[in-house]
Amino acid sequence: MGIKIFTQETVFVRKSFYSFFLPSLLSCLGIAAGGLADCVFVGNAIGPVGMTAISIGQPIYMLFNTISYSLSIGGSIHYANALSEGKEEEGRRIFANVLRTDLFLNLFLCILGVLFLPQVLTFLGAGTPGTEVWNNCAALVRAQLLLVPIMFCQGPFYYFVNCDNDPKLAAVAFVTSNILDIVFNYVFVVVMNMGVAGSVYSTGLGASVMIFISLIHFFKRRGCLRFCWPKYQFSTVVTSFRTGFATSVQYIYQFVTILVCNHLLMKISGELGVAVFGIVFNVALVAASVYDAISMALQPMVSTFHGECNQANIRCTLRQSFKMAMIVNLLIVVVLLTIPQWVSFAFGLRTAEELAMGSTAIRIYALCVIPSGINMVLTYYYQALGKEFTSYLLFTLRSFVFFLIFSILFSFSGIGLFWWTYPCMELSTLAVMCIYNWRNGSWTYLDEDNSRVFSAFVESRNADLGTVGRSVSDYLAGIDATPSQSYFASIAVEEVCAVILNQPFPSNEGYIQFTIVPHDDGTITLHLRDNAKAFNPFDLDTENISLETGTGLDAIGIKMIKSKAKEFFYRRYAGFNTLVIRV
Fold it and tell me: What share of the chain is helix, strand, coil (3-state, %, to 5)?
């Protein structure tokens, strides 16, 4: 029989996952490399004072990251949901509102920060005005504020282009941006001796190039995104921010925790403690870049599958995410435990005291990498699934509550115990999550009773569309669909599948996966995905059908579907054809 219920769900998941993950990994590692380059070049050119300035200036980045990435991540998730339901115009409105809000809010805060720069520096803990640390911090923070509108408009372009089925271009834009950041970081800081501000100027230059490359997606009309100026919808912005804040709240938490830790470390170990803390923070960004890359694959896929009520594919995506997180994290752990002295040396630490403190901190941090991966993958998953409270809870415990508790507690026992903050916060978060999910009776939060949704998988080699049609008819009768809905839904499945199966496939095996979802308003939505070469059945010529000449007969069923369907939508997504038909 040619119909199998989810026996081949991995056919679509694995290819889709890697089509998003691999480009995103390059992008995220590029971001981490850019941050590491800042510290490496500044640390070697200026010394621990430069590293201290970078660490003290980090809260500024955290504040603007919170705004930009809350809007970008949340907006892109709602954009993916809108497209999965065939609502193209709604998706464009979401992008326009997110981009405008991000730009104007950043401009406002930028002007405010420049006007009150001395007060900002005092708040950050830059020390006494006129000192070497103060002057370096002033140069860094001033450059950050002046370049905020450019650096933090990258988020909307990257996340929306990535979700608009163009992860390769998004990756090229970010990788190019970060390569330029690294190259000009060396030129500005080392060659031209521009100090810590040079590391910011190189980042701004890279951001400008990233935005310019992203515009190719719009000019060539590769997806559904278009520039437009719709009526401003405050509710859309709030919804996007609320969804993205569950992830981006980490930046506001880091704003607070870095600020607190800088003050604590200045008291217990001076500038060296703050410099080593900056090194550990930037090493942590490498591991975080892996989680961000996984989220960029996981979130659009889970959002799409969730819109289709395709629970098997959601579970498969989650398993794939965990598998990749563990593989990459094990490599990171091995490197950190094996050569911590080399890592410390690369950041400009030279004396025996500096290398000893740096190596100890890095080795202790390595112990938290794997539990951190578990926490982060689940947090991104819950966010994509719409479980915003659960996602927010994990981020709050991990990045704020436990971090502050352990950092303050361990600081009383000296610098040696302070670095155990990282493993303790990750393990405590994991323990709380286990208890929370146990009490709620689920880790995936998927409805176990999915009997209302029909799901099937058709193989081209032995497809029996008659059997498929009868199975669909029996299902629709079981959910009390109207006779016209049952008729047209069955015809839609049979006719569309027949047209798709006549198309060339990249290999000898062709697959069609579809779900049928009933709605409370009485409508029924069909979601179809296939691995044929790019093909939109609704582009078939339905105006020149002739029974006498026998032309266009394969389009008769498509013409009837187009005339009777309430909505129909096609897009090429993650290397596959996807169709949405509502009857």
Answer: 75, 5, 20
pTM: 0.69
What angle do the packed helices 402-411 and 234-268 form, to 10 degrees?
A: 10
CB 295 within 8 Å of CB 380? yes
Rg of the chain over all Cα atoms, to the nearest angstrom: 26
What the block records as the tokens of 389 is: 């409270």
Q: What is the mean pLDDT of the chain?
A: 82
Which residue is it, tokens 């991000």? Answer: 102
pLDDT in tens, 57-67: 888 877 888 88
Paired tokens of 543? 């105006």
Q: What DSSP designation does 231 have?
A: P
Distance CA(420)–CA(363), nearest Å, equals 10
348 neighbors 44 (Cβ within 8 angstroms): yes
Q: What residue spans of 85-195 are helical by DSSP H? A: 88-115, 117-124, 132-146, 148-151, 154-163, 167-185
Cα separation of 41 and 497, whole Å?
58
Quote the CA–CA distance of 15 and 52 in Å, as a whole number.
44
Residues 395, 66: Cα–Cα separation, whole Å: 13
